[in-house]
Design a protein that fits this description.
- By secondary structure, the protein is an all-alpha fold.
- α2 runs parallel beside α5 and α4 packs antiparallel against α6.
- It is elongated.
Length: 223
Amino acid sequence: MRRSPREAASGPEPHVMNPGRLHALTDGVFAIAVTLLVLDLPRPENSEQLAHDLLQQWPSYVAYLVSFATVGLIWIEHTGMMSAVRSIDRRFIERTLLLLLFVTLIPWPTALAAEYVREGEGQAQTAALLYAVNLLFMGLSMTLGWRYLTRHPDLVVQPARPALAVAQRRSLLGALTYVVAIALAFVSPAASFAISGLIAAYVAVTTSGVPALIRDTAPSEND
């Protein structure tokens, strides 16, 4: 239903909001998450062989790198998503908050993985399982955001709309691959962590296409 001239002049519809504040919130949450990852790196106390003791903690560095890469790439993906959004509503905010729930949680399974990956089989399996499950839900929540935008193209700038379905499928493929990491956690925790690293590499070498599409179709400053 068309809005009257008086309603149009009064501003945007009450259920539609500017995405600026949500973008600022997500940037802050991602920054806190990667900072917490750094705080969990080993700091041996009263060590007489510091270099040796630090090298013995190599699982902590591997877990940190995989988690940092994953969180950083999810941030890049979400930034690309937000570059396509011209307005947001409550449902999109809810899906973004769901993503942030698992982003803020990631330092916990990362610390567990670093501490227990070389322990007994049961402990290592549990740590690997928690790690992969958290990444699975983080990926699925990202997919939910793309899915919502695909079903509500009015929230997205026109040049980006053709790329939404591809971005959703790519995100879902990356997320579902963590199911393999979950299954491997019961057989080989080290292989499970390796799969998580490979998924991060997959996201790094592929793109959703949305930011590039906006850039390629945007009018130049000289036009």
